């Protein structure tokens, strides 16, 4: 299980649309809610590291029923022989807290939503550190999620099933393939072939 010692308020402010230093009122709002949000969240992730190959139908991950299709994912995984499939969430507590605050205080709800968005990115970063250890970042690709570029959003369900994410971390998706809890991520990370 991942623990967040602090949620980046600078990143949360960016999610609020603030590109510079937040004003005092916004900074106080983020300060007030950061610890509350952090104490409510229950971050978790699951992953599989698998062999992959390029085929005429698309990129095949070992054990996944459907190929990864689209130019975006092909470009990203070019030069990779293995991949990590990742699913992460900060739990349904994020959705619950956003709903609770939106009933009484829309500014607080905006801050909570932004803090939860920053938190899931930090969870993914920490998961990558745990998965890849000391591997240099140059030896892996960045995270790429269904719905990015031309990688179909419908792949979301296949990845969740592939990882047994519903049972393992309580992560599923709606009929329109949106993740639930909402502050969650599925992603593919390529592992590049290192030339000796």
The average pLDDT score comes to 95
Helix content: 40-55%
What characteristic shape results from the CA principal axes?
Answer: globular
Tell me the major beta sheet: 4 strands, antiparallel
Instruction: Report strand order across the widest sheet.
Output: 2-1-3-6
Terminal-residue CA separation: 35 Å
The low-pLDDT segments are none
Radius of gyration of CA atoms, rounded to a whole number:
18 Å
Query: Could you say how many structural domains there are in total?
Result: 1
Compute the number of strand runs. Answer: 6
CATH architecture, please? 3-Layer(aba) Sandwich
SSE order: HHEEHEHHHHEEE
CATH fold-level topology: NADH Oxidase
The SS-based structural class is alpha+beta
Number of helices: 7
CATH level-1 class: Alpha Beta
Report strand %: 15-25%
Structure description:
By secondary structure, the protein is an alpha+beta fold. The protein has a single domain, classed as NADH Oxidase. The protein contains seven helices and six strands; from the N terminus they run H-H-E-E-H-E-H-H-H-H-E-E-E. Strands 2-1-3-6 form a four-stranded antiparallel β-sheet, sandwiched between helices. The protein has a two-stranded antiparallel ribbon with strand order 4-5. A hairpin with a 5-residue loop joins strand 4 and strand 5. It is globular, with a radius of gyration of 18 Å. The mean pLDDT is 95.
